Amino acid sequence: MQQQYLEPGYARPPQPPPPQHPHQPSPQHPQEAPPRPQPPPPRPQHAQQQRPQHAQPPQQPPPRTHPPAPGYAQAPPRQPLPGRWDRIVLGRAAAVPEPKPPPADPYRPDTVFDGWSTRYITVRLASVRGDEHRCSGRPRQDDITVAWHESTEAVVFAVADGVSAAPQSHIGAALACRTAVNDLLGQLDEERAEPDWTRVVQAAAYQLLMRVARVGEPSEEHRKEAMAQLATTLVAGRVLPLPDGTLRVDLVHVGDTAAWQLVGGLYYPLLGVESDDEISSSAVLALPRLPPALRPRSYQLPADGVLLVGTDGFGVPLGDGTGMVGELMTTGLSHPPREPRTLAHLLDFSRETFDDDRTLLAVWPRHRLAEGTP
After folding, report:
1. Is the distance from CB of 120 to CB of 241 less than 8 angstroms?
2. What is the spatial distance between Cα 252 and Cα 199, in angstroms, rounded to a whole number?
3. Helical H runs in the chain?
4. What is the DSSP letter of 178?
5. Cα 79 vs. chain centroid, distance in angstroms?
6. Mean pLDDT for the chain?
7. Which residues, including other chains, have CB under 8 Å from residue 50's CB and lie 6 or more apart?
């Protein structure tokens, strides 16, 4: 029988038994001829082709997905859009390095934004630190507070711009906003037909004085110190829904923080503008200094209008609304943006020479939200 040679590492393949012919004698009998030997298996041509393959790593099981709760459809995954939240550049961009951290006490985030809707009113708001303060490590000096009064369906708000020359004006702005909003909410609880604006402004100014005096009645020296350390502008107001779908807006202001209504792509000022950054100037009006007389304003915001209340970091580059900033805001705020952070993104545009803090409140009739792009 011919000997078969196999290369090392290879086993002889199993040989099938020879087929039995129906007329072939059985090999059990010695007289019969032995079965014909089978030909050897073909010798492999190249050993490399017959090498065993490396074992593949085990496949990871697919992630487990939980079925949606009854009554809810599972939304498809959303992929982030590249560059969607990159900073908007208008004209020549301002060169800004990585921002420096602001002082830790009190905590002041670089950017804040919020947004929500009642049955009749939709609100979006944002406040961003300006490039000048980011580069110098100074805190954001603007502040904003907005609240909803459930029983009257009113929205009350306050926007403040700390005077740049006052080192703790960010604290003054925060105190003024919270005090004004709390007082307006209290007056709504008292079911006052019209706001007592003198009471609102005096309450905000008194809080600045007490920040300096700590205890006891503030003196004239406390007043001077508060003016030097905590001076801030203020706009306070409320928005009431009317049966015809419009909104009634009541406003009062101290200083150069302003308000507009945006209708049909045009900006209509609702408050006079006074601007001066020097505390010592007699033209400046900022809390805790009180104006000789308050001049509150009342407006009816049309069903297709938008109420805007902003600090001069927004108002100065906006101008009369016909430039690049006005076009950007008209496009972005014609309807309420679905994501509240969109307003912060719009507000944080980059444009050379405009580096102040920016704060903006936007208010629409609720039906404008349904009209917007999904």
Report:
1. yes
2. 12
3. 131-136, 169-189, 197-213, 220-230, 312-318, 324-333, 341-347, 367-371
4. H
5. 18
6. 83
7. 10, 44
The pTM of the full predicted model, rounded to 2 decimals, is: 0.75
Question: For residues 322 and 318, what is the distance between their CA atoms, to the nearest angstrom?
Answer: 8
Q: How confident is the model at residue 193 (pLDDT cuts 50, 70, 90)?
A: confident
d(C-alpha 218, C-alpha 211), whole Å: 9
pLDDT at 44: 52
How far is Cα 19 from Cα 371, in angstroms, rounded to an integer?
85
User: pLDDT tens digits, residue range 227-271?
Assistant: 999 999 999 999 999 988 899 999 999 998 999 999 999 999 998
Q: How far apart are CA 130 and CA 88, in angstroms?
A: 14
Task: Give backbone dihedrals phi and psi of 185, rounded to 5 degrees, phi first.
Answer: -65, -40
- Tell which residue, 191, 193, 189, 158, has the closest CA to residue 176: 158
Distance of CA 155 to the CA centre of its chain: 21
Mean pLDDT of the region 85-89: 88
Give the separation between CA 10 and CA 52, rounded to whole angstroms. 11
Neighbouring C-beta atoms of residue 165, cutoff 10 Å: 13
Nearest-angstrom CA–CA distance, 186 and 79: 45
Q: Is the pLDDT of residue 218 over 80?
A: yes
- Which DSSP state fits 245? S
Tokens, residue 156: 């009350």
Per DSSP (E only), the strands in 202-293 are 234-241, 247-254, 258-263, 266-269
pLDDT of 7 reads: 43
Q: Which of 252, 233, 242 is nearest to 195 (CA)?
A: 252
Any residues with CB less than 8 A from the CB of 217 and at least 6 apart, and which?
none
Between CA 266 and CA 135 the distance in angstroms is 34
CA gap 332, 343 in Å, rounded? 8
* Residue tagged 């059990």 (tokens): 28
> Would you call 241 helix, strand, or coil by DSSP?
strand
DSSP category for residue 267: E
